[in-house]
Amino acid sequence: MLPVVVAGSTRRYAAAAIAVLVRPSDATNGDTHAWPLGDLAGTDCVVLNGSDATTVLDAARTAHEGDVWESAGATYDVAFRPLLPDERTCADVRRP
After folding, report:
1. Chain-centroid distance, C-alpha 1
2. What is the edge-to-edge ordering of all strands in the sheet holding 45-49?
3. pTM higher than 0.85, yes or no?
4. Which residues does 23 contact at the CB level (< 8 Å), separation at least 6?
5. Whole-number Å distance between alpha carbons of 74 and 32
6. Can you say whether residue 16 is alpha, beta or left, with left for phi > 0 and alpha for psi between -120 and 50 degrees?
7. What is the pLDDT of residues 67-89, one digit of tens each?
8. What are phi and psi of 91, to 5 degrees?
């Protein structure tokens, strides 16, 4: 098995997709950002790739820990997680 980190490597991992982990929030201590894609209601995770991933990550560059995201009038805590090469779905991210 190859090592996970190659000593001396400067190459960064470029994820092909990201998981967006979502939960409702009533926090008021951070800034509020407009969610740039569809409605987050009713989901706790979504996998994005291509232009959708780029759109969300571009919006996330201005966010800080404690900020919330607004979608369809509700606010959410959102966490971004790059998918590893063997991961494809939210179920893969939630492995025990």
Report:
1. 29
2. 32-34, 68-71, 74-82, 17-24, 45-49
3. no
4. 44, 76, 77
5. 11
6. alpha
7. 999 999 999 999 999 998 889 99
8. -60, -35
